[in-house]
Predict the structure.
Amino acid sequence: GDSVTQMEGPVTLSEEAFLTINCTYTATGYPSLFWYVQYPGEGLQLLLKATKADDKGSNKGFEATYRKETTSFHLEKGSVQVSDSAVYFCALRLNTGNQFYFGTGTSLTVIP
Amino acid sequence: EAGVTQFPSHSVIEKGQTVTLRCDPISGHDNLYWYRRVMGKEIKFLLHFVKESKQDESGMPNNRFLAERTGGTYSTLKVQPAELEDSGVYFCASSLGGPGAGETQYFGPGTRLLVL
């Protein structure tokens, strides 16, 4: 079935370190791919998205590229900040469907 | 503009009791979704309303769960009777258009439910 597998956490990095959170997916058809972020005490916020192969989503210094050949959508940031500490969720949505399929979430803590 | 709000933020109940969660979507959003995250696992879809109608309830786990959206504004999700495995975080989301239109879903902060 349709599903998302993402890197398990928790992840702890020092400020200005490079971040990669891996995400791979299984889907029928051609899904849209998303990264959502949940800051402490808040709801999930859309971080970035990509709707077709080779698209790159970017926002707030984060990037992810839709790789159909490897069924991946890895999240990267070149230099993390303490304010990036949050839980990150990878998700897919089938273009014919009504629902999201989320990964388990990866908790990121950035220390000064 | 106010975002999606959920009430209560936390609920602790005993097995067998009833709990009702409420979601207020962004004003004007016809589409409302419920999701659940059981501890350490993925966020799973429960159901989707378009206005007051249930568009898709394929994710509802069993008949102990009842969702309503009378009048097409706020929604409630009732669990009766609650079981231990119902513990988790319940998220609500809303969107202006449906998924086919590529609409972004805006999520609330979630309700943390603990069944003892």
